[in-house]
Give the backbone structure.
Amino acid sequence: MTLLIEPDYGTPASKRSDLVHVEIDGIEVEIPADTSIMRASAIAGISIPKLCATDRLKAFGSCRLCVVEIDGRNGTPSSCTTPVADGMKISTNSERIDRIRRGVMELYMSDHPEVCAAGDECEMHGMAKRVGLGEVRYSGSTHLDLPKDESNPYFTFDSTECIVCNRCVRACDEVQGTFALTIENRGFEVRVSSSGTSFIESECVSCGACVQACPTGALTEKTLYTIGTPTRSVITTCAYCGVGCSFKAEMKGDELVRMVPYKEGGANEGHSCVKGRFAWGYATHADRITTPMIREAITDQWKPVSWQVAIEYAASRLKTIQSEYGVDSIGGITSSRCTNEEVYVVQKMVRAAMGNNNVDTCARVCHSPTGYGLNQTFGTSAGTQDFESVEHSDVIMLIGANPTAAHPVFASRMKQALRKGAQLIVVDPRTIELVRTPHVEATHHLALMPGTNVAIINALAHVIAEEGLIDRAFVNARCDLESFARWEEFIRLPENSPEALELVTRVPAVKVREAARLFATAPNGAIYYGLGVTEHSQGSTMVMGIANLAMATGNIGRPGVGVNPLRGQNNVQGSCDMGSFPHELPGYRHISNSKTREIFENIWGRKIKAEPGLRIPNMFDAALSGDFKGLYIQGEDIAQSDPNISHVHAALRAMEFVIVQDLFLNETSKFAHVFLPGTSFLEKDGTFTNAERRINRVRPVMPSKTGKSEWEVTCDLARAMGYEMNYENGAAIMDEIAATTPTFSGVSFAKLDELGSIQWPCNEANPEGTPVMHVDHFVRGEGRFMETPFVPTEEKASRKFPLLLTTGRILSQYNVGAQTRRTANNIWHSEDILDIHESDALLRGISDGDWVRLSSRVGETVLKARITDEVPAGVVYTTFHFPESGANVITTNYSDWATNCPEYKVTAVEIAPSLRGPGELSEHAQSGDAELESLIRMANQIAANVPTTAAPEHAVAHHIVQFWTPSMRGRLRNDVDRSKLSPIVVRALELELNPQPV
Amino acid sequence: MSQVRIYVPRDSAARSVGADEVGAEIERESVQRGLSIKVVRNGSRGALWLEPLVEVETDEGRIAFGPVRVSDIPSLFDAGFHLGKGHPLSLGRTDDIPWLARQDRFTFERVGLIDPLSLADYQSHGGLVGLRRALDMAPEAIVAEVTDSGLRGRGGAGFPAGIKWRTVLSTPGEQKYICCNADEGDSGTFADRMLMEGDPFTLLEGMTIAGIAVGASEGVIYIRSEYPDAIATMNDAIERAREFGLLGESILGSVRQFDIRIRTGGGSYVCGEETAMLESIEGKRGVVRSKPPLPAIEGLFGKPTVINNVLTLATVPGVLSRGASAYSSKGVGRSSGTQVFQLAGNIARGGIVETAFGVTLDTLVNDYGGGTYSKRPVRAVQVGGPLGAYLPVSSFEVSMDYESLIAAGGMLGHGGIVLFDESVDMAVQAKFAMEFCAIESCGKCTPCRLGSMRGAETIEKIMMGENVDGNKKLLLDLCEVMTDGSLCAMGGLTPLPVRSAVLHFGEDFDVRREVKQ
């Protein structure tokens, strides 16, 4: 194993396809027109000296080392900035060129340290040697006494080693799009500057692009000094967000020196953000638990034990519970942070070893509506495009997503497209960064009130239908016309007009109309969305509304268009693909389908139940009503991240046995009886699947700190419970996935190693994967339009709770902060802040920086207020990165009608000045039969949201059969006071609520 | 008695020697004396050594007086100067002053004659004839006319204007631009300023013709911030041109549209380099771009762009109104037409001399310029701004055209000529060239950014007698790296004054040199 040095061709590849012939140093080269001489030479194996050129950035032509001579032309042009022309004869070496190169290096070295702190990381001394520079004859003024800027926690800026090649500035501009760096002064006094202030105080977002671009030691990772020079690299995948960036983990022995973004990475193409690039220190943090621990009661101290003791204890307690309370009394939750292989094994353990379908995943609380909505309309539960697609978009509609904070590397790509001229429509209550940021300005910002997504998407579609902007050719060729006709009739109803909905959305109708026209008339219109779409009571409806809009405008099936969910976690897509939903087996196949079950039953040697199991919120409800007693939780801190925490805590306390498998003790482990130490991504051997369905390899860069792989532990537990489950390695698990799941049938570790990554479906028809889906036809055949009536959430602002709280993420922290809070990222964000509009603050006597009490119908907490115009009046906003701020103490039990994805994005709240800072969080008392209340609410919600047909009770019955456990269906039928149910639900109850083939 | 028109220049060179006060005093005095006099503020005739040059309109033509001081005014009135009568300051008919009469004014045809902001004056002196003709021509024909005239870029590079225009015309693009480079930063040059202050409509007309010719609808004039009067005059002229219909949606009632705005520089010399100027207009740091792409193909905001100097564009109306051959018939060889030379430095009679190419340096320096102001012998002349070569007296017979100057080791540049007498220390001048570059370089390319400082330091060492032979070798090596390796003309030409100083005035670099006062 050695350090991987990626080739650098000096300038980006030409986009031309026509070829020209040139002769370089006597070698014939055939190369696309517009390729630089430098790149053409590199491809021909001729390396031209260079310092300011790198193939991630546009040619710049400043260092003048790369000069060449061209037959028939005067002068010595720089090869990076000069494109090849047919018939050109180029010499890359001559006495004159040598003199210039030596002369340039002599100048450079006259203002460069004799010994560089960064060693070989600095290319200067090597280059001086290469061009044959001997003595430096100059002496005079230098910049060698300038101070170092050590303010950034992760890298140093040492101006004395800087050669002002501008690579850092250009990387910040061209790649990252932050424009934090600049060049100051003129002439000899020219210096790179973080815009006149220190790096930490500047606009810098610490993406690391400048550090990577720097050819000298001027910008260097601090770990290079503290740990030393790396000696080997391992290509792996970041474990933060759903972008799934590829990195070279550069190692010195078993110690990670730095994570360097990998140019060949399909998702990131060599770019990174502060989290993936720098915030990996948590993986070796002292808080890591590496030994299994057990205890009898949650009030006891933890007791470290051997793996064997822990596994046997866990298995016996689970078996005891099952024998006492029934097979369905336990279940498991898979983690979107874990590999496909680890997730697959957990759902297999639940189905085969526990013998039920009580398996759910943390995707429940983020993107389950995406799966449902896109499956209903397109026939598959995934985004339609690859990331590269955005470069071909003319108009981008961004709904309920804040990519610069949550998906920074994709945001940079989007910003590149916007700077090249694509137009942007932002649909978001908040003025997110992309509304206006250097060289990017949204054409329209539809600042709707939280909870009115469906109203706005209907209004947009209404305008498109009414103004004759529907792409009828596409609809006629590709869509189910019966569903289209119904939808068109629905969407043209006057109640869906922007004028009618203006009062609800608070977006002026004229703006909606303009945005609709812009999107509908764009050659390529693309929709990107995030949790601001899914985490609502109508999350699934909104996803279908988005799909309708894309189909109606013909924006499906080619680069530059599509419906693109921005996935929150590294493996949300994968954990859903892997069958961790209670109603679905891997590959999104309903559990009631006996043919699918047979495939698994044959390999697993166990019968699989044909009825759906419990979803996470159902598990909590069932726990509180005494039916659900034991839970295995793989890498999810439900006691912090799930809504209405007091309800979650009560449910966890009601369980008899909880297993937490994680890196750190967390809020959930406070309720656990067994702690199984997990492995960080640096220790895993498997795959993650990102938001563009790209399966990336995760390779172990260091040995497991627990001595075991996570999937091994799951297998051990299954075996201890009496089910034989064994794999040789991660690759063998993937082989089983491929053997059972058609969309993965062509995937194997060997092929991933060969191709780098694969976008599913990967099968016989698409052996190298599928970057863009639904090209000739939809996965389900014809695209299906779904009616999307707007049903306001029951969580309404009232006199007592007049404000709407919405939640989100910031760049430097990640979700509940388990990882990022254990890194130097806290320097940017060390507490959650409540954003409030000036008018709301004034009304309540709140000043910027004051402590405020934030209360909702379910609880209250104390946060620091920030007065900002990023939120409109009537809306407040906070993040949920810190447990002590307890944002989820506030959020309610309301959830998406179809998937139970929590309604994190709308909570009615009131705020008041608080004299004290954060202390005990208070939870409002909740009483009554939680499960029954949930069932009533869920059933009524389904009735209100199913498409309006002549007999909606059939749709309601069908939905309930598909997604509810028999026990839930039984309680709805037998225990509920029917006067509390909508008449449609009552009629549905008259129908057989029995499983039907889907 | 009808009203007498008295011309007092509003040109900033004239103002710097008291033209405003002289004008005000003439008005005050005339009121006091009950005379009907109208003071017209014209541009400068360019005979700067005569400023403030006051002209009185008479039946015989304008009679000139100068240089006029405020204290001279009572005696001028006493002598009846307002009737054209004699006075010790009288220079006779302006048109007969030999210094002016010998010139061949084409570009500067109207400068000094007219009220710069009077469109009536402008038209009565031949203004808008060229534009009206262009409006009836096909774009290709306009470009052909400019090509045939042999007009070359006056910014310094001397690239044929017609060919540049043709490239822009033939590059497809809905949006194209005309950029006028008025960042006249060369030492000893002032022709752009005097034209903008003295005949701004000519520039607007020339840019409009260029716009029609290449299909551009927007023009930008980039004027250095050190030219507040020129900026004010141009802004005023643009307002009037819009009101008149010379600029705007419909040029002179036609279907063609064109508008112009002013961008002010930020005090950087290198922004006179065309690509750095584009960056500056775009609101960025004034840093040189690599070529290709040529600005004609990807210029301002990435669109096809004509970039021409003030003098180039201001010559275009004359070319169109009088025809290509009226221009091309002047000059020598491939240097067609006239050149607006600017005489400056230690010179007796400084100012604007517009004549056909081919005049000798000697004629300019000694006949027009009258030798040095200090009356000491001439030792050196720098032609073409701070990046131009120093030429010794032995080179004075050189024909002043693009090719001959290059052959003589120099360059024409923007036509500035700066005189030095025998007291000049050429090592100091050479060092100054490097120091100027070290301050004004955009800092993008290494040879210019670092080389200029090392050059100044090395010359300093030579002056101090430190390892003179080694440092002289090093200086020449450095000059080669800068010349061959620099990105633009700034670094590439800085060695020109240095090498010419070493070549022609080597004695100033000798070991036992005496530091001259």
